[in-house]
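Internal tracking record. Fields below are filled automatically when a chain is submitted to the structure queue. Please do not edit lines marked as system-generated. If the sequence contains nonstandard residues, flag them in the REMARKS field before resubmitting.
Queue: standard
Priority: normal
Entity type: single polypeptide chain
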Amino acid sequence: MKAQTVDIRESMGRILCCTIFRPGGKKLLAKGHVLSEEDIKLLALEGMEQVWVTELEDGEVGEDDAVMQVSRELGCGCLEIRLAAGGRANLVATVDCCVLVDDELLKQINCTASVVISTMLNFSYAKAGQRICTVKSAPFAIAQAQLEAVISILKERGPILQARPIRNPALGVLYTDPISGERARQLFENIMRQRLERFSVTPSYVLAAVEDEGSVARALNHLARAKPTGILIASTTAPAGPEDTIGRGMAKIGCHLERFLAPVEPGNLFLLGYREDIPIISAPGCFRSAKPNVVDMVLPPVLARYRVSGWEIACLGHGGLLA
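SYSTEM-GENERATED OUTPUT FOLLOWS
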């Protein structure tokens, strides 16, 4: 692709190489725009006689076409693609969702010389209408062979990004304290409300229990029978591991203990278990303050009914220093 300055009468169908502004700074035509007959008339009215343009050669694909092709392959779920000026395509959430990102595949695609992709962080919460990803092409055009290589990788290993919808989540909350469960509720309920409001959620089922193995197990069993999206345990104590009261109570109702300890600060004493498909999360100390902690990192996938694995918790260390 070669750029050259031509008379505006010869620019029909060619690609504009620079943005053109009116006097005063208002944009007239954007870089990358394919000039039409109306554009040429507009340029003539502005007193322009020549423009800097280029055109596609054999084996090249225009930037807009390229980013649209990549965008159609890289994502799935509740999203839509919106073409933007300058060889960009934006992926926008159509409903509230959790953004899941294949980081290794994203790195591989971004090592190519043709397109680059930027996304929200894995497990991010996105509101309807929010941009969650942008695809940018090399200026004006890319080689057909490079585009085909990228598309082939995405077809074989993709998608890079999933916009997993959050629809009608029903959270259960259990407040526990060694003396009185109601004490834990009084201490933490306001903070819990503030935290969940960030995700447009209110608890559907709430219980308080004395923190002993039997009481915790009975309360968890009761909450689990309602089939909630997930259960949060807000305890006033800081257990040393799954062998302590909360962990034993979870084990007593048949929970599979997926992960203890998270590489996140605050929130390193995180405990995740599953009662069948229901995630149960204990994060001692995380409900004393509304500041971001490990609960904020894992709530979006939980609300989207995505099964978070112990390996994915281990991967939260990069960016896990929150305070």
